[in-house]
Design goal:
Length: about 240
């Protein structure tokens, strides 16, 4: 079990698969969320009873009590915390059962991390925990998360979904250093088993499209990974 820090939006992850649990912890912490993670329903209920959370990510198949039961017990206490269910099951009956037990949303494995983040943001907005703009700007570079349009100096730039996801992540976290491994998991997902050099390829393509040569916006931190410097978009 890992405990959350003391500030920001707190998310409880109840997931018995250590690979997925680790993937969620790493990715969501890089997004600025506080994460507490555990691997059984009973442990999750105990954490929930003793701490305050803004959202729960809940696996259905757990080693003791299942996610449906966990969800019902949370709701029986009169708590309306948003609950996002994760499962390998994709049958309509399971989705209905999850929603009937009190879940707010449902996502099947394997899932795309960008979709997971979008579901989280939607649930947090709905519960009044998050008010997020759709347009991000860094100097003369702008990105709209709703229309998925990117412009630099007023000129539209066409990006692939992977390039857009990378740029959005960088713009949300200026000057933060991301390792290739974190970028790989964050952009391509926990199931991807290729080499980390694929990130270098996508970064090079993104730099070319942003006319970032020599690299000033997306800088290489040698031996570590990459970081985005928003103040250099003016030049």
């Amino acid at each position: 079990m890992e405990d959350a820090r003391e500030d920001g939006i707190a998310i409880l992850v109840i997931e018995d698969d250590p690979v997925i649990a680790g993937f969620l912890q790493t990715g969501l912490r890089y997004e600025g969320y506080r994460i507490s993670a555990c691997y059984s329903g009973k442990e999750g209920l105990n954490l929930f009873k003793n701490a305050s959370f803004d959202l729960i990510i809940l696996d259905i198949v757990l080693p003791d009590i299942d996610g449906f039961d966990v969800c019902r017990r949370v709701r029986s206490r009169g708590n309306d915390v948003p609950i996002l269910m994760l499962t390998v099951k994709n049958e309509v009956s399971d989705r209905v059962r999850g929603l009937d037990s009190g879940a707010d949303d449902y996502l099947s494995k394997p899932f795309d991390f960008d979709e997971l983040l979008a579901r989280i943001r939607a649930l947090l907005r709905r519960s009044g925990k998050l008010a997020e703009g759709k347009r991000m700007e860094a100097g003369r570079l702008s990105l709209d998360t709703e229309t998925r349009e990117v412009e630099k100096n007023g000129v539209r730039i066409s990006l692939t979904p992977t390039e857009f996801a990378l740029l959005e992540l960088f713009m949300r976290h200026p000057r933060r250093v991301f390792t290739r491994e974190v970028l790989l998991n964050r952009i391509l997902g926990y199931e991807y088993d290729g080499g980390t050099n694929v990130i270098d390829v996508h970064i090079n393509h993104l730099r070319k499209k942003l006319n970032d040569s020599p690299a000033r916006l997306i800088r290489t931190v040698y031996g570590v990974g990459y970081a985005f410097y928003a103040d250099d978009t003016e030049e």
